[in-house]
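We emphasize that the prediction below concerns an isolated chain of 375 residues; any contacts that depend on oligomerization or on bound cofactors are therefore not represented. The input was used exactly as deposited, without trimming of termini.
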Amino acid sequence: MRGFYSIMSVSTSPDDDSLPYQALARRIKAWGRELGFQEVGITDTDLAGDEQRLQRWLQAGHHGEMGFMAKHGTKRTRPAELIPGTLRVISVRLDYLPAEVETTKVLGQPERAYVSRYATGRDYHKLMRKRLATLASQIEAEVGPFGYRAFVDSAPVMERALARKAGLGWFGKNAMLLNPRAGSLFFLGELYTDLPLPIDAPFEGEHCGNCSACRTACPTGAIVEDRVVDSRACISYLTIELFGSIPERFREAMGNRVFGCDDCQLVCPFTRFTRVSQERDFSPRHDLDRASLVSLFAWGEEEFLDKTAGSPLRRIGYERWLRNLAVGLGNAPWSEAVEAALMARLPYPSDLVREHVRWALARQRDKREALIARD
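Result of the prediction step, given as a token string:
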């Protein structure tokens, strides 16, 4: 971890609004764009309002099993407690929509597996951290040693709140950060720094108007209030964060979504302005944007580890991968191939997998009987 150092060449007063810092802020934004970030903003560390909203969300239990959301106390909402000396946060946005990816089409083909669009290619963490480190090096070449720490969804950081304050967007009714030129299909990263840079104006007010498309589209009704998501009902939480059994009341609504869910993002009117990403790392691998449930369910553990190397999918592990796919297969139309695939997994040495396979087989047999009765 980098330490914080005083800058010898310029004043370090947090209220310093001198021309050198204004010019430096402009250069930082230009460097960020040259590195491939679509937008760069700068903000201070005051998150008092967001801290109150987070506490209400936690007290309501909306975080479910995500204990890490409460673990670090106020370090999440007070950047200077996490990294002493922090005065400013440089927030960056990187769009991720791949060029050739099939999106809503796959949701309408229940025999295929739907993987959240951000996860069909390589993991974004290393790519963004490397570029943030390069940005920090460029700043250091300009001003000399300074204090900073880079984050990409890797620490108790209020990424969306900081990005809103830095002018990168506003909170939509699905609690996602929305940008008028990119919807919400982007990643965020931050540089915490001790440089007293001038700050950008935040997005303020309600920009969604009367639109409630995201709330209507949510398959499980997880958006319980405007800008409030109960994670315990969210398919992204159920397929990625939840370690145990997926509650039966949500399984049918999951459809063929086996890793994450994009529904509330895809229906957002601002998503139509999203530009296709030119990042090759975000291009789908192993046909993960269109693969069949049966073919993915047939992967052995070694194949899973091989094909998910450097992928966000690796995070859930093989057991939960099979759990999620079993639910998708239970929701798929009946076919001999689907039923055979599930039968082949019945002896699998995991109570979690077997439970979901049995549920899926029961669903498939009901569908088969219904087809026979119809004929």
